[in-house]
Write a structure and sequence with these properties.
434 Repressor (Amino-terminal Domain), homodimer, globular, DNA-binding, DNA-binding (chains A, B), about 0% strand
DNA sequence: GTTTTGGTTATCATAAATGATAAAATAAGT
DNA sequence: ACTTATTTTATCATTTATGATAACCAAAAC
């Protein structure tokens, strides 16, 4: 597995963990972010290399700083 | 100007500032990151919405944490 | 003034993120 | 078991990031 895949898996896990901590459903977060729910599912599964803007919207709607979202990646 | 453009401009400025602090030329950083120098130029100018992997490579080669790269965005 | 050096801009191709939609799988409740 | 909610997976179209290359611009060196 290369660097990129590892990074994708890591951000996916992080989003999922934070979302669940907030007790938010995948579809709810997706809706708030104006992201397709299928897209968010892929992202959480590590199947995509998200853009900064996507990450920002996710952080905003999780009510955390972007720094916190990408911590330890 | 919308959110996305503002974000792009912000990350561009941040990369430029940090790169210059390190006394690194655009082409040097680009080369280290395996990014096209034209691509990095566009990124610093706010003309693109970079992916997480691109940001990670930039942070690594600036020898900073990804959190530090995306601070205050 | 002409070489470097660093940066910008333009163009085109390709890869990949995301949108849009639907179907299938899984979990949770009741 | 049945229903409901949630997530996953698949597919196709569209948009966009990036690669690749080249030409151009500006400033500084010499």
């Amino acid at each position: 597995m290369d660097d990129k895949e590892q990074l994708q898996l890591a951000i996916g896990k992080r989003v999922k963990m934070l979302r669940e901590e907030k007790g938010m459903a995948q579809q709810d977060l997706a809706a708030k972010c104006n992201i397709e729910k299928s897209n968010l599912s892929r992202l959480e599964a590590g199947g995509t290399n998200p853009t900064l803007y996507t990450l920002k919207r996710i952080a905003d709607n999780l009510e955390i700083k972007l720094e916190e979202l990408v911590i330890k990646l």
